[in-house]
Fold each of these.
Amino acid sequence: MDSNQSPTIQTSILVVDDKPDNVRLLSTILTEQGYQVRKALNGQRAIATVQEFPPTLILLDVMMPEMNGYEVCAKLKASPKTCSIPVIFLSALDDVSDKVKAFDVGAVDYITKPFQDKEVLARVANQLTIQTQQKLLQEQTKQLEELVGCLQNEIQERQGAELALRLAQKKSDHLLLNILPAAIVENLKKGEGSPAERFDSATVLFADLVNFTSIAARISPLELVNFLNQIFSKFDQLTEKHGLEKIKTNGDAYMVAGGLPVLRPDHAEAIADMALDMQGAIADFKTDTGEPFQIRIGINTGPVVAGVIGIKKFSYDLWGDTVNVASRMESHGLPGCIQVTTAVYEQLKDRYIFEERGAIAIKGKGETIAYWLKAKKQLTVDS
């Protein structure tokens, strides 16, 4: 659903915040888009309201007296009656650990205050779209299961049913593979679920378009999305080329990882090649003023935890210090540069050209030595 359009079917949203002004503001924003809004000024009231009038979606403040948002979310997820209702946190807390905690208790998204009207509407619309797609997927899966059952009965009567069954299964696999990594799909097909899994060695890349906020302020939303679609589609092609796993996009940021969910020993090298190719690819794109785009890239390697988060949202994501430092490498980098940690440098220094940047201050890590990845060394052949 487009966040600029009213929903065709009225959706119930519960807004929970101990600040009446915030509740009124969110209520106005959502009501103007055609949503039905209920309000609660504390955690206890929120839980009671959800039990009596289960909403489609909950917008939940973190910092509340007596019972904070994390506690409210945990109680809702513990109840069979309310565990499937998606929760979006709203908070002034912007630390990675706060966001990780939100997802740990079952949230599907996290909006940092002060928020923008369009951001709230876009994220709400995104979650409602995901719900609709999940219901459609469930219906299609049910239909597929019914079809498979019929084919299994008919297989005794004609050999052609076996081919039809394989085709139906292929369509189902293709649908899931557009959402999740192949290894995760295999687990789901076996009924094993997709619990979080630790990977002792993986490489994570974050890339961010430089000055994209100023570009977004000058062009229409349609042009903005078109820019991002063209650029990220090219990055997707590079991800497939190097055998890596695209994790997610967030605004104008792109995240990709190597070495998971399928192990591979050369994940650091594959990510380095991806980063260098991304620099080459972004040079083919121009801004609305004709200037070349630039990206900042940050890379780190080490242990991570990966899995599918949420109850109703199909999203494969990563957590851990390795991920946080990779993100810092990007945010503390320079336009047009690839900044990497010492761990990456030590693994790749024999095959790639690096330039030492020196010590930089990283939140939670202190002074850290960083390097610029410049190029891949050319192999020489003795004549």
Amino acid sequence: MKKKEPVKEQTNDTPSNKDISSSFNQLYNILKTLRSPNGCPWDREQTPESFYKNLIEESYEYIDAYLKKDINECSEELGDMFLVVTMLTIMHEERDDFSLVKVLDDTSEKLIRRHPHVFSEDTSAYEVENGDEVAVLWDSIKQNVEGKKSQDIFKTIAASSPNLLQAVEIQKKARKVGFDWDSRTDVFKKVQEELEELACEVDGNSHFDISVPENKDRIIDEFGDTLFSMVNYARFLDIDPDEALYRANRKFKNRFSSMQQLLSEDGKDILEETLPLSELDRYWEKAKALQE
């Protein structure tokens, strides 16, 4: 029987046991150095106005990595998100708007305040059994404790957020006050109704001219109503419409690339020659069969 080697005690310098605060301080100090007079010219030139869009970009890159199940890339993209958030905070510190300490402390205090069922001295006074009950408690604290009650139920929906996400949040807010469909069957009927109205707007008039601005506006309105009803249907199916569209985009790109490969194998190049649609459809079906 082989003798077991003694387990080596890990020091605080090992990555698995390194103090979190020291790692974050290291990042913070690196970014402060980059912003200093002796730092990097590019980093010094950045402002919140030039830098905040990176938040959106890095968020989507993390989502993309997660959906690909690439754990190493997930770690890298989350690191980039920490970088952007910390850099933006440093910029605000330089303007004397607020400090990183305030940002972190305010967030911690808010989490404790909004989770009395976890952190209060008498958690039994705030018993919740599921996520829906937690959401009700959360909203109650925001309104009655933090004084964030407003007649505008859509006030907290960021106008700069993607419109697909806004549609989901608008519908969730309406649901909280009881304005919602009774069943997914009713929602699907609404989808069909909106599709019919769109088709009627486009094809119902034999003299229809899409180049006329008034006609184009009506089409846009009906198309928007159709998309909004589809988001509603996705919500009733417990589907994230943004993820569904992401998958559809990815599937189309992969299938199109496969079609191009099949064409190339037969000595045809879709970028160099115009092929009849019937032939492209045939290769598309071949590519589809290979992926199923």
Amino acid sequence: MDYVGAGTVELLLSSNGDFYFLEMNTRLQVEHPVTEMITGVDLVQKQLEIASGLPLGISQDSVSISGHSIEARIYAEDAKIGFLPAIGKLALWKPPSGPGIRVDSGVKEGDEVTVNFDPMLAKLIVHAPSRMAAIRRLDLALSSFIALGVTTNIGFLRNALTHPAFTSGSITTDFLDNTPISEFISEKPDPSVLVTIASAAKRLGTGKSSSIANSSNSDDHSGHPHDPFRTLSRRFP
């Protein structure tokens, strides 16, 4: 084929434990940080080195796997209505940080999420010694991920991550199709989100309408003339 470069090979794992080749992409994919976290190999650097005519510099025997890594894609979308994209302004954007936590993002606070681009806001990747430890670390990171101003899938991700089928490792490719969406949607607002909104209102309050309209677990009230999220002021308790 005369192909030279760093690519991505995808395989599917069957219920009997066999791997089956799916496809080969001549590029790195959105999940490449997982491989980087468990191997310590900078795949982007390797890609650039190969493109520059340099040798790969590593052999398969020199690659070892350490621990477990999981990636979650943070999207501006509404899980309640079929994961349709959501638009708005990122009024407050505070990604999590800490040991074993990595955030790859191309947005910042104040950016507009429009219909012109893919609604993915960030990739949140965690690394831990075991799968269960990685699940707990990712859930903690998601719980402290603040993204206000647009509807996001953060609440959905937390519920999917802690679903018994996921934690047990028994999920298949039709996990979401065969599970009622109600099991992934929390009807009650996350207390941490309410605290964040209150803090943001005090910090940003000017007596004028606030741009904080939505949160990851809130409904879209942005079109309602009496929406309290549009009229937060310094009098907010």
Amino acid sequence: MLTQIINAIILTPQGWLKDGSVIIRDSKILAVTDCDLAVVGAEVIDAKGMYVVPGGIDIHVHGGGGFDFMEGTEEAFRGAVAAHMKHGTTSIFPTLSSSTIPMIEAAAEVCTKLMKEPGSPILGLHLEGHYLNMEMAGGQLPENIKNPDPTEYIPLVEKWDCIKRWDAAPELPGAMQFGKYITEKGILASVAHTQAEYDDIHAARKSGYTHATHFYNAMPGFHKRREYKYEGTVESIYLHEDMTVEVVADGVHVPATILRLVHHTKGVERACVITDALACAASDSKEAFDPRVIIEDGVCKLSDRSALAGSIATMDRLIQTLVQKADIPLEDAIRMASETPAKIMGVYDRKGSLEKNKDADILVLDDNLNVRAVWAMGKLVEGTYSI
């Protein structure tokens, strides 16, 4: 099957291509060109001068469409993924909050099955915990939190190769051993829900931790103890220039000014955006998987308002926030939603940019950055076409 998107402003790795076209053959990009000549036998889609950009890659998302990945069922996985795809996410790493071993096993079994389906948007499982600092638990389930335990994590990693990322607080006993082990197995180690200061982060980096989970959230910045000042996790990660970060760019978790600071300091090459979305995202649902959570001010919170507990954001909202509120150039915003997360997760060989022979994961955005069409692996996502 051939599809040709014409009359488009296309984001390529070399920059913007005006009045160009993208040719799709089955699930792959056949060509990106500045020529709008019709291809014989192709279905022609006129983009009408709108933006054509790579599909979003969400590397931290808990659910959507009324479903949470912690449910560990095919229905929940399919429902949440489908909900986010309509908003521009074409690749996804389902995320579990701090869970029990049976919950992880159930989710891993479903994830493994769905990853094997041809053209699956599911690229791997992300475990956010349960090796976190209890003092920085936030919306995590406290009864599941503990120190890293090799009798737990080694069997899980050996059994489930769908696990592609695992987060932990590096100051916990056993966290350095944990980081070394999972990175040797090709799993991304990320700093999360932590009170780490510079020495902790420096040791963590040497032990394989290369990424920071929802940067600025559930981690301290510059602070005092009595009369002395100390760098926080935030400053320590800035000082480790090669560490990458992710930000919940919903305009609530991190203010627009801080989004600009992250972009300015880490650069588009080392900063990506995530939804950190809960089940109520991309749906009319007012409930999260966790009964303690409420929705207020466009974000999820614990009902006592002691902490944020996730977002209701979708990929289009992240891009809109970066551009319209944080004044980040559209090109950089798109790269932070596609290219950078693809590189962080090691899938840039096939995802994250519009290039010949890469997967045909494509968004069409109008001038207000609303999603007007989504192709995932060359297939038009149902309910997204409005060109």
